[in-house]
Amino acid sequence: MIIYCEEEVRAIKKSNQIVAKILNELGAMIKPGLRTKELNNWAETRAKEMGAIPAFKGYRGYPSSLCTSINEEIVHGIPSSRSLREGDIISLDFGVLYEGYYGDAAATFSVGEITPKAKKLIQTAEEAFYKGLEQIKVGNRISDISHSIQSYVESQEFSVIRSFVGHGIGLSLHEEPQIPNFGLPGRGPKIKPGMVFALEPMIAMGDWNVEILDDNWTAITKDRSLSAHYEHTVAVTDEGTEILSLLNDGKNSLPYIKENQYA
Ligand code: MF3
Ligand code: CO
């Protein structure tokens, strides 16, 4: 596990601010009729303009820069000519490499009017991230984060996806430790200042079983229930935590949830 110095954390933040800016712009573009490819193109163009390299394209053969996962799609949905429809929900996951450091973040957005239950699902994914964040403190262990996320999501009568995990990030897109979004507390490595994590709860309205589509990437819920995703890159500091992928000083706390807004 890498312990980053303050200067490195600032560099990781730069990369994450680019991700945040672009995700925010993508969120504002979402409307019925928009093709997911158009979102991918925008993300690529903007990353290039800002001097950053999209991190997902070519990663283990992933074909695009952005992940666009609609409705029952959990994660790793591949942008295509598919257009968004009123009532859909769409998770956008984006990462870049900038000056040697990685940024990674994701959020789920609504397309026009969605059902109250879909709204609650999106909000629960976001709240689950914050429940995990609360456990990121020096002396705690990694699975305290996992346990807190799972307990919260299940208290809202949704389920936590088990096949995908949060991760360390910085010099690589995926570093140790893995951070499951479920499990018993008090296990795993101790949390220390200088660690940087991408915390990313994925949740479902139905159960947590996953299926992978024939494109070998798109993960969907086996029961085809809706799924939401929320991810930020977070640094552990001496004072607490700093969310590196929020478009501000990273220190704001709940209530934070604004519809279709990432900033
Ligand atoms: N945020 C996701 C992750 O950390 C995105 C990876 S997409 C991939 O796993 F294409 F790069 F795999
Ligand atoms: Co990630």
Summed up:
The protein is of the alpha+beta class and 263 residues long. It has helices at residues 6-29, 36-49, 116-134, 142-155; strands at residues 53-54, 66-70, 73-75, 89-98, 101-110, 159-160, 166-168, 175-179, 196-199, 202-204, 210-212, 219-221, 227-229, 232-236, 241-243. Residues 250-258 have low confidence and may be disordered.
Secondary structure layout plus pairing:
Blueprint (H helix, E strand, L loop, with lengths): L5 H24 L6 H14 L3 E2 L11 E5 L2 E3 L13 E10 L2 E10 L5 H19 L7 H14 L3 E2 L5 E3 L6 E5 L16 E4 L2 E3 L5 E3 L6 E3 L5 E3 L2 E5 L4 E3 L20
Antiparallel strand pairs: 1-4, 2-4, 3-12, 4-5, 6-10, 7-8, 7-9, 9-14, 10-13, 11-12, 14-15
Helix pairs in contact: 1-2, 3-4
The structure holds 2-amino-4-trifluoromethylsulfanyl-butyric acid and cobalt (II) ion.
Please write the string of helix (H) and strand (E) elements: HHEEEEEHHEEEEEEEEEE
Q: What portion of residues is helical?
A: 25-40%
End-to-end CA span: 29 Å
Strand content: 15-25%
Using only C-alpha atoms, the radius of gyration works out to: 17 Å
Biggest beta sheet attributes: 5 strands, antiparallel
Mean pLDDT rating:
94
User: Which ions and ligands are bound to the chains?
Assistant: 2-amino-4-trifluoromethylsulfanyl-butyric acid, cobalt (II) ion
**CATH homologous superfamily (4th level) name:** Creatinase/methionine aminopeptidase superfamily
Number of helices: 4
User: What is the CATH architecture assignment?
Assistant: Alpha-Beta Complex
Order of strands side by side in the largest beta sheet? 8-7-9-14-15
Q: Enumerate the spans where pLDDT stays under 50 for 5 or more consecutive residues.
A: 250-258
CATH class: Alpha Beta
